[in-house]
TrEMBL record:
This is Urea ABC transporter ATP-binding protein UrtD. Residues 6-245 form the ABC transporter domain. Pfam families: ABC_tran, BCA_ABC_TP_C. GO terms for cellular component: plasma membrane. GO terms for molecular function: ATP binding; ATP hydrolysis activity. The gene is urtD.
Amino acid sequence: MSGRALYVDGVSVVFDGFRALNNLSFIIEPGELRAVIGPNGAGKTTMMDVITGKTKPTAGIVKFGDTDLTRLDEPRIAMLGIGRKFQKPTVFDALTVFENLELALKAVRGPIACWKWRLAAEQRDRIEAVLREIGLSERGQDLAGLLSHGQRQWLEIGMLLMQEPELLLVDEPVAGMTDQETEHTAALLARIAGQRSVVVVEHDLEFVRALGCKVTVMCEGTVLSEGSIDHVQNDPRVIEVYLGR
Ligand code: ADP
């Protein structure tokens, strides 16, 4: 897998004297799937805000390959191929599943590209490939408003895939999903990583186990523990944080 690694190095974020991130460091390798867990207030959202340029660090550096992200604004960082999926899906209910994906493609390529029939055919193939990837091939012509909660989340992941990100940040994808939808989501994220890096912030530890990837545990704005799910679940520091002192 070629591609760029993400380096978060000694990052601190201070809001009015409060340290939301405190010397946070980790590396995501190209094509890696990584889960990030941690109690409320651990700094997970702030970490994603710093990577996408929404929040600028008070200290430290974030690099994507050789590019220093801390010098760039949000749109420039998105254009580098860093996509973010927020917890709440933002699909268009009144459009079909296919049209939602088409819209996501147009947002990247611009309307001019869509005038050319060759690109239109290529576009159709690409949308169908993404429909297969997210497991919604049978639902392409249905209105997005008719999808289940889980299917809407997959559609939104598909909309991000249309933009061919190199790094995808995914915030709590399985909140409110059925067990079956949760299983599908774990398989989907494991499948789409490899061609791009995927960082998943999640509370559901059973889901994190199903992802079968390296886990970073954050607490008080820094990394508390890192390794396999078995390693971190048996780490006394993690047990202390989760079970109370
Ligand atoms: P998590 O996503 O792990 O729950 P957050 O990154 O949302 O954690 O928050 C980390 C800490 O930073 C929390 O204590 C939160 O209250 C604080 N925080 C986050 N954003 C701001 C802000 N804009 N101003 C002040 N404090 C903030």
